[in-house]
Each structure stands twice: as C-alpha cells, then as structure tokens.
Amino acid sequence: MTPIQRWTPVEGQPQQVADPAAARAALRQLRPADYAHSRNHLGGAVTGLSPWLTHGVIDPPDVAAAAEAALGSPLPPGHALTLQLAWREYFLHVAEHRGAGLLQSLHEGPLPDALYASTVPDDVRAGRTGVPVIDQAVHQLHACGWLHNHARLWLASYLVHMRRVHWRAGADWLHALLLDGDLPSNHLSWQWVAGTGSHKPYVFNADNVARFAPRAWHSPGTVIDTSYEQLDAIARGQVALPQPYRAAQQAAVGSDAPVVSSAPPTELAALLQPPAAGAPEWAGQPVWLVHPWALGDVPDDLPPNTVVLAVLCEEFHRAWPWSAQRWQFVLPRMAALARSRGADAGVISGTSNTLLGLLKHAGPVMARQTWQPHYRELLEAGRVTTRPVPARCTSPDTVCASFSKFWSRQPGAERFSHRR
Ligand SMILES: Cc1cc2nc3c(=O)[nH]c(=O)nc-3n(C[C@H](O)[C@H](O)[C@H](O)COP(=O)(O)OP(=O)(O)OC[C@H]3O[C@@H](n4cnc5c(N)ncnc54)[C@H](O)[C@@H]3O)c2cc1C
C-alpha cells in the first residue's frame, strides 16, 4: 500500500478538514510515473486528491503542475493522469450544458428504466452480500468515504446489472457516503456503467477482481465468477438474474453504515449562524460568496473592503444528504473562510429565497462557478459574477455526447489514446 491512499483507515486517520495545506502536501507526494502503470490496481499510485478537487481546494491545473514538478518535464497530453483529469472536466462540461438533465437517463439503457428497482437492497447497504469484492468496497466506503475508481466501477456494475437496481438509486446512495461526492462525476459515471450514458453496459468478473484487488476482495464461486458473455446477457435481460445471495446473509443495515443527514451533526452546529434580520453591517460592500465547492483560498485580487460570506443552500442538502464525515470535511473550512474576512463569523444556512434576500443587501457579489443544483440557480438569481473553475481542457460550446468527442476537440489530442 502506498502512503497516498490516505483516505483508507489502513493508512491511519483520514483527513478531517478540507485544508489547503493538506492538499498541497498531497500534491508534493504525487508519483505520476508510477500512476501511469499502476492506477488500475487498488494498491496503485492513485493520487487520493478527489475530495479536495471536488470542493475546489485545488484544481486540475494544480495537479498537472505538481505532476510536472515530480516528473521534471511537461505532462504529456496522453499521460494517464492527463486523461483522468480530463474525464473530470468532461463530466463538468456535460453538467454545464445539461444541468439537472444529468439526473435522468441520458438515453435508454439495455433495459427500460421501469425494470430496475428504485432502492438499494439492505444487504448491499450493510456490506453483507456474500460477494467479497462488494462487501469489502462497502465497508471501506463506510470507514473512510473514499473508494478507488475500480471499486466504484465494480460496486455500480454489481448493483445495476447483477441486482437490477436503477442507476439513480445507486448513485444517490454512493454520493451520500463519499467525501468527494460530486453529481457530475458520480451520476454520469453511474450512467456510463448502466449503459444510459454509454453504448454498452459495463460488466466485470471475478478474474478482473483477482487481477486488480488484494486477496480479501477476490470473489471466486460467486455470481460474478462467470464469463463476460454471460454477464452481458444478464445485464441485457437475455438470461435470468442469478440468485444474488444466500438467505442467511440478508441483513438490516449494519452498524458501521454512517448516518447521512441534510444538516450538519450537532457537534458542528456552533459553526452555523442564522441569517441576520434586517440590513447587515456590511450592506453595500462587495461580497465573496463561499459555497461548498469553493473551499480554496479567497482570491487576493478582490477589492480591499470585500467581505466573505459562507452559505449553505438548504434545498441542495435536503435532496443530497451527507455523512457526518463529509460535514466535518467541509463545514470547518467554510467557517474558517468566513472568519478570514467576514462581517459574519459563521456559515449561513438558508433556503434559496432566504439567501437571495440576504444578497440583496450586498454590493457586487462574486463567487466561484458551480454546476451543483440549487447553488447554480442561486448564483444566477443573485446576479453573482462567477469566476470559472480553473481547467486544463476547453469546454466546447455544444455538448459532446461522449468523452471521445470531447477529447478529440482538445488541442493536440488526436495523437493520443483515451482508454478509461
Ligand atoms: C460509479 C462511480 C462514481 C464516481 N463518483 C465520483 C464522485 O462522486 N466524485 C469524484 O470526484 N469522482 C467520482 N468518480 C471518478 C473516480 O472514481 C474518482 O475521481 C477517483 O477514484 C478518485 O480517486 P483519486 O483522486 O485517487 O483519483 P486519481 O486516479 O488519482 O485521479 C486524479 C483525479 O482525476 C479525476 N478522475 C480520475 N478518474 C476519474 C474518472 N473516472 N472520472 C472522473 N474524474 C476522474 C479525479 O478528480 C481524481 O481526483 C466516480 C467513478 C465511478 C465509476
């Protein structure tokens, strides 16, 4: 195991707060040369940077710069890290164009939506399916809120194709438990696995797990220990679903399943403050608006009298609750940013209407762009001047229906492959 897999409990305490110093320390540990040949292995030299990237503590250009410093040369466009960062930017590109449309199937998958169950079964939620790869993934998810990309692919594929659960139910469930839960990357990846955002269902078998995962994850003799032809036929409904688990292993949600909530846990409640009634003391001053996807440092080119307001938009959090671990990751950093230059000391939680009422008192309002539902609408309705998320790829004006199309429209990309 490499030290970079810090989100796993095996490596000690997971990071607690979206702290830029910790993110910068992680950037200094990048091993881009090893990443290229080992990233598909659960013990490979993956970066573990996704929680910081999701919350805007760092951005893809920072990762590329750190990789270049480690390599001592420019990061080639065809390097695996370049391509994986581009996948993130592709999903943001789709979100920019489709907005909340990414929450519905982009096109029909192998079977009609109505044939899939709308809830995640209890034995999966508890990590007690009897299929070691799935149970290991769920327990790691519970313990540290982070999974390797391959584990996410396996979990999603098993749920959608072996248990016939609708991708949206699985996506919402996983999103709630991840520290890096990000609707564009998460929900579009689920659609890619389901076949509603790609041209074929993604399936995997026990041999694939044995190749890329440690022994405890290997799953011989289980429902996934079969040929790809058979798995594809199951996903397409051409043969019956296998009996997924032994009755003795069915279970209610296990005790290690984190509680998810639309509001911060009580131990963080002191970091919240209600919106002030009437005109605040900073009325008329410029505002830098901090939201959960803007946890990097406050830009240093703002007018000197700019105040920092940190806000939570309640409609979003009611729709997509978070684990306590995620609240712990996000909220103290938001409060620290609010305190850095704020007239208000805490994080203001309110409905869109309440927050809009507050912003009416402000002078010019500026914020980092986001495509997260409700926050995006808040920025638009509040006539907030947004700053783009720093990116390495260009986002074409019309939506690209596939990563290949997106990639082919990047300068110089035609010379390189784009395998996932
Ligand atoms: C079902 C499923 C759900 C996912 N949900 C999320 C999510 O909610 N949030 C999220 O950030 N990523 C998600 N991903 C993408 C990917 O699994 C994670 O970004 C990655 O595993 C994070 O670990 P890392 O930082 O070590 O990645 P690395 O391999 O070190 O990659 C570096 C960075 O590149 C980006 N990246 C890498 N692989 C992908 C990918 N396949 N798609 C998009 N971006 C990628 C991430 O920002 C990542 O931090 C999901 C993938 C799947 C299959």
Automatic annotation (TrEMBL):
<dbReference type="InterPro" id="IPR002081">
    <property type="entry name" value="Cryptochrome/DNA_photolyase_1"/>
</dbReference>
<comment type="similarity">
    <text>Belongs to the DNA photolyase family.</text>
</comment>
<dbReference type="InterPro" id="IPR005101">
    <property type="entry name" value="Cryptochr/Photolyase_FAD-bd"/>
</dbReference>
<keyword id="KW-0274">FAD</keyword>
<dbReference type="Pfam" id="PF03441">
    <property type="entry name" value="FAD_binding_7"/>
</dbReference>
<feature type="domain" description="Cryptochrome/DNA photolyase FAD-binding">
    <location>
        <begin position="84"/>
        <end position="213"/>
    </location>
</feature>
<protein>
    <submittedName>
        <fullName>FAD-binding domain-containing protein</fullName>
    </submittedName>
</protein>
<keyword id="KW-0157">Chromophore</keyword>
<keyword id="KW-0285">Flavoprotein</keyword>
<dbReference type="InterPro" id="IPR036134">
    <property type="entry name" value="Crypto/Photolyase_FAD-like_sf"/>
</dbReference>
